[in-house]
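Per reviewer request, we include the raw input and output of the structure prediction for the construct analysed in the revised manuscript.
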Amino acid sequence: MSSGYKVDLSALDEVIKKLNRVVDDMGGPHTCAKYETYLPPGWLGKGFAEEEGFRGAHSGMKDAIEGYIKQLQGLINQFSSNASQVRRNYDDQEHKTKHGVSTEAGGGK
């Protein structure tokens, strides 16, 4: 009779799949932030002092948002990778346990 914990590996697999989908889905916002938010010189108008300041502020915010998205993707990738490693560890341990029980039942071979 086992008094240990039981881990639902299928639930862990589902978490890993969902994390990978989140990372894939973040490609759209990252692409949008990087390529679809360009503010060319003169687009806001010409001949007023604030135009350069506006573009500078926009560029700074654009870079910050790209960085946030990249950091978030990295964090989710790391968590997904760690969850995958945990999954493999549980699977390996389960295999070793089954193999150990089989060996003991077979007369210690």
